[in-house]
């Protein structure tokens, strides 16, 4: 005969509460997407919408028109180039810095963490206002579309630093560095062959988060007159509201898919590492 359970019985309300919260959050996220999808693909005005025509007159015409728009395609290419440049610049700048702080200056970690929170406190428009003050002196730099990369790196700091910091704290950095150095490896070899392979999940997380920041940033690009995807979508929406909405929906779904892929990849890698250890 099985022994009686020890402790207080779990009430049904404690079980259904989290489920209700999850359902409410899902509806809060999904309902605007459904409204955007209906407006983008259905040729029925909102005032004429009813249960009888809720699933009628759907078309992909506006998606095809937006895809063939030369301005949107050019801005998409530029935004993808900015994504690659920002990810590379962020990794080259932040990865060695974070490792150095953990190895040599652990007491400075709280100060570095405070600095990376500042993009939350200081709005992007304030950053642009400071840029405009010195614009005449650095016009040679701001004339290039790739001048957005350092600014996007700053905006992504709250996400990238914490992703890398969590990855570093999850491994024994000092032991790996001491073992690599004792075998005669230089700092470059230690970084490429001992540290980065063990931080692969953190680097992937940081890269994906940086990509979402670049694909969604509008303020800085608009004030500096750069034709990135967000600014071009805003202009395109003025002449074609449904086409601009369908592009915005596609970008939102793409970034959500990136984050979902990130979650799946990190979970599979974590499970594989745990199976290898045990």
Can you give the helix content as a percent range?
A: over 70%
Structural class: mainly alpha
| Strands, total number | 0
Give, in order, the helices and strands.
HHHHHHHHHHHHH
Span between termini: 34 Å
Number of domains: 1
Q: Please identify which CATH superfamily we are dealing with.
A: MetI-like
CATH architecture: Orthogonal Bundle
Major β-sheet profile: none
**Overall radius of gyration:** 24 Å
Defining traits:
278 residues; mainly alpha; 13 helices; 0% strand
Provide the fold topology:
Layout (H helix, E strand, L loop, with lengths): L11 H30 L19 H7 L2 H35 L4 H13 L2 H10 L5 H4 L5 H22 L3 H10 L4 H9 L4 H17 L2 H5 L5 H11 L1 H37 L1
Helix pairs in contact: 1-13, 2-13, 3-7, 3-10, 3-12, 4-7, 7-10, 8-9, 10-13, 12-13
Structure description:
By secondary structure, the chain is mainly alpha-helical. The chain has a single domain, classed as MetI-like fold, CATH 1.10.3720.10. It contains 13 helices and no strands. Helix 8 packs across helix 9 and helix 12 runs antiparallel to helix 13. The protein is globular, with a radius of gyration of 24 Å.
Summary, kept brief:
This protein is an all-alpha fold.
């Amino acid at each position: 005969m099985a022994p009686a359970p020890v402790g207080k019985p779990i009430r049904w309300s404690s079980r259904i509460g989290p489920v209700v919260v999850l359902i409410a959050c899902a509806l809060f996220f999904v309902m605007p997407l459904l409204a955007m999808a209906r407006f983008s693909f259905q040729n029925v005005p909102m005032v004429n919408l009813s249960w009888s025509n809720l699933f009628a007159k759907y078309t992909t015409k506006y998606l095809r028109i937006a895809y063939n728009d030369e301005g949107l395609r050019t801005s998409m290419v530029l935004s993808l180039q900015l994504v690659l440049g920002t990810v590379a610049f962020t990794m080259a700048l932040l990865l060695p810095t974070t490792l150095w702080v953990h190895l040599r200056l652990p007491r400075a970690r709280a100060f570095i963490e405070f600095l990376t929170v500042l993009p939350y406190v200081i709005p992007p428009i304030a950053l642009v206002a400071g840029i405009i003050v010195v614009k005449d002196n650095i016009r040679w730099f701001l004339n290039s579309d790739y001048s957005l990369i350092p600014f996007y790196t700053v905006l992504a700091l709250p996400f990238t630093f914490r992703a890398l910091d969590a990855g570093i704290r999850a491994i024994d950095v000092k032991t790996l560095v001491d073992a690599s150095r004792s075998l005669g490896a230089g700092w470059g070899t230690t970084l490429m062959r001992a540290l980065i392979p063990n931080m692969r999940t953190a680097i992937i997380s940081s890269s994906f988060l940086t990509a979402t920041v670049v694909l969604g940033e509008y303020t800085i690009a608009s004030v500096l007159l750069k034709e990135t995807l967000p600014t071009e979508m805003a202009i395109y929406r003025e002449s074609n509201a449904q086409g601009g909405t369908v592009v915005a929906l596609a970008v939102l779904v793409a970034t959500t898919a990136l984050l979902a892929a990130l979650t799946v990849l990190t979970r599979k890698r974590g499970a594989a590492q745990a199976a290898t250890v045990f």
